[in-house]
Description:
Blueprint: E1 2-3, E2 6-9, E3 21-24, E4 28-32, E5 35-36, E6 41-48, E7 53-65, E8 78-83, E9 90-95, E10 97-98, E11 102-105, E12 110-117, E13 123-134, E14 143-150, E15 153-160, H1 166-169, E16 176-178, E17 200-202, E18 224-226, E19 248-250, E20 272-274, E21 296-298
Parallel strand pairs: 3-6, 16-17, 17-18, 18-19, 19-20, 20-21
Antiparallel strand pairs: 1-5, 2-4, 4-13, 6-12, 7-10, 7-11, 7-13, 8-9, 8-12, 14-15
Amino acid sequence: MLLVLLLYAFYGKDANSAPCSFRIEGSKGIIRSPRSESIDTNCSWLITAPLNHSIFVTFATFQLYYKADGELDKETTRLQVWDGDDEYATSLGIFSGTKRPFSLQSSGSNLFLRLIVDLDALLCNFEGTYVSMTTKDCEADRCSGHGSLVGGKMKNDFSCRFPANIFKCAPTIATDMILRENKIRELPENSFHYMGMLRLLDLSWNKIRRLSSDVFRDLTELRELKLGVNKLDGLPDGIFSTLSNLQILDIASNQIQKLPKGILTNVITLQQLDLQRNLIESLPAGIFDSLKSLSYLNLLGNKISILPPGVFRNLKD
């Protein structure tokens, strides 16, 4: 038994009475996937907003499990989204598997979605809401991107020009976010709250002086974090505590004087750590004990005169 996508508008006719192809013009609505007896499904729908509006879709639940062997091909269960009125428009992304809550936004007044459920799908379950919103707050050309399916792997790339409200308007499906050399001085506490799909975040060559302990808490998929060449004079306890998949951390060329003892405890997957050209005078005992995968450590250009006994004991040769 598989699940079929149905769309119900907050106001309007129940979509269950129509074929699996929908044209929606309401200002808001719900997307959900109740159970169905169908074994093969290809559903699509076109959402149209008023002139000078864009469409903002948020998926609170998203589970699309494909073939048991993990192969991702043209027959795989997936949701594809285009920034326009058909599948010839710019692709906004191709989605499958289990996702944290995420959002999509069109650049214009149309958004086209297609759900393909493969015969061997294990689970198809998701629910989200959409609303239309004026485009004056988030200019359409601030961020652009595309989704692709290459060699059995999905990738959603975005590049952004930096406006004052970038953290409000950036696409939440982005996997890479590069904000270097933008004269950023501070990051709001919830800057990346809906960007749980990020794998690379580059904030280097800015003017950031302080970071809150919760600023990166939602980036559980992050692999690479670049904070080099800023004006950081310290790091709060717990700032990296939720980055359980982090592999590369660059904090070089700042003004950090000391490191909290447990700041690296939870980043057990870390492979590269760059702390060069700071003002560090000493290292807490056991600071590297959990970093069993660390293969690169750079402490050059600091003011360290004495090292705690055994501080490098658990590191690779």
